[in-house]
Design a protein that fits this description.
Blueprint (H helix, E strand, L loop, with lengths): L2 H15 L4 H13 L3 H14 L4 H13 L3 H10 L9 H14 L3
Helix pairs in contact: 1-2, 2-3, 2-4, 3-4, 4-5, 4-6, 5-6
Length: 107
């Protein structure tokens, strides 16, 4: 088993215990995205966002996934949804958001 497969299995086990943590769903989505399981990754990010509407990491990861699929409009909508809370984000998340906005040609 590769490291990503092992990590996915561990996160899946954790979600079996408690599926109400957006951070777990976001991490699971990142792993699935790395494995090119984009449909499952999308579902994981959307689950994280259903648990916490403006969860920054999941919002940005889903935007990145949409960008990789050429769905710029959906990515822009997601990124813009964080604009109102940008200064409440951690410095790391603010930097990532700026990078995504730049890639999308928003700034």
């Amino acid at each position: 088993i590769g490291q990503l497969d092992e990590a996915a299995a561990m996160i899946s086990d954790a979600l079996g215990i408690s599926d109400s943590a957006p951070a777990l769903w976001d991490t699971y989505g990142e792993i699935l995205m790395e494995q090119n399981k984009l449909g499952e990754a999308t579902a994981a990010f959307l689950k994280a966002l259903s648990l916490e509407q403006h969860y920054p990491a999941a919002t940005m990861n889903l935007a990145r996934l949409y960008m990789s699929q050429g769905n710029t409009e959906a990515a822009v909508t997601l990124v813009n949804s964080l604009s109102d809370i940008m200064y409440d984000l951690s410095p790391d998340h603010r930097e990532k958001l700026r990078d995504i906005r730049k890639q999308l040609g928003i700034d």
